Each structure stands twice: as structure tokens, then as C-alpha cells.
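Researcher: We're teaching a course module on how sequence relates to structure. For the next exercise, students receive a sequence and then see the predicted structure as C-alpha cells, so they can try to spot secondary structure elements on their own. Here is the exercise chain.
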Amino acid sequence: MTSPTTAQNSPETPAALADLPCQTCDTGSSLQAKGYCCRDFRSTLGSFATGVTVVTALAENGEPIGVTISSFNSVSIEPPLILWSLSMNSPNLEAFRAATHYSVNVLAADQQEISDRFAARSGDRFAGVPVHEGAFGVPQIDGSCATFECANEIQYAGGDHLIFVGHVEHFAQDEEKSPLIFHGGRYRALHAD
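Model: And here is the predicted structure for the students to work with:
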């Protein structure tokens, strides 16, 4: 599966997945010699439908940063913990490592353009995006299904990603909103029963 994590891992059509660079597949590594194909693995992971989130924080200079991810997951109710992961190649990695807090914004079905914007490698991601300041100064995206503002509690190396575990200090939900879904390399919508 290609999760919307960075431009390298942004939402793509299934045909475009085969064109994404892959160090394992493209360099003839030992994994490839064993018949392991990262592109096939990524595609198979795409069988699992996920929500789409934008994680926001403040860089050390006070500038807002944000990135689209689908690796968000709950960890614990007591204490309230969530996790998400970010590619070790992300240009925002060090800023997220150093941030004291971040917000996980669960995108609504009508926020696909915001997902695409925060998955892009360049441009002002926040330009024209309605946000408000959370309790710790972190920008939160207006119109999201839910928002979790977290203390940046623990980080673990996880292969080619860094896993962030956040202690949820504030959260909010808009029960009227339907979530943006990502499955099989593309966005999907929930249908009412």
C-alpha cells in the first residue's frame, strides 16, 4: 500500500504505484534476490482501508509544518495514547522529532484537496487552508472529523519509518462529518446504509 505519508508515499492511482522509487526493488538488494518485491508488498498493504490524517506541529522557528499520513492508530485508552509513523526520508522528520506537541487531524470526506496539498513535496501547504490554534499553539485544520492534540511522548525506530507515540491531551469530534478513506491506492467514500 502506498499510504499518504509524503510525496513519495502520497495517494496515487494503482498504475502509478509501480512507478514509485523503491531502493530495495531498484538496487537489486538481498531482499529482491529472495523474491521480495516492495511494490507488491505496498500494493497488498493497500487492501487495508484507512482513514487519512494530516499531522501538524510547529517547527523550532515557530513555522507551522504538516504532513499527510494514514498510519494513525489508537494505542491505549488509559493512558490515552495514539501512534503514527513518518518516513525517515521526510524533510520534516527532525522538526517533528523536536516538537513538544502535534495535532492529528482526521480529514473529512470533502477534504481530499487538503490531503493532496500536505502530501506534496513543495509549496506552502497551509496557504488558504482554514486553521485555528490548538491549546499548545499547534495549527488544527478546520472542518476535520476529529482532532487529537498530543504531547510528543515516545519515538521508536521502525525500519524505514519513525514511530511516534503521542499522549492525547485534547481531542474533539464532529459527528456530522464522514471521514476521508484511502483504499487500494485511491480515495474512497463511505456510503450510507
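Model: If you want an answer key for the exercise: Residues 5-18 have pLDDT under 50 and may be disordered. The radius of gyration is 17 Å.
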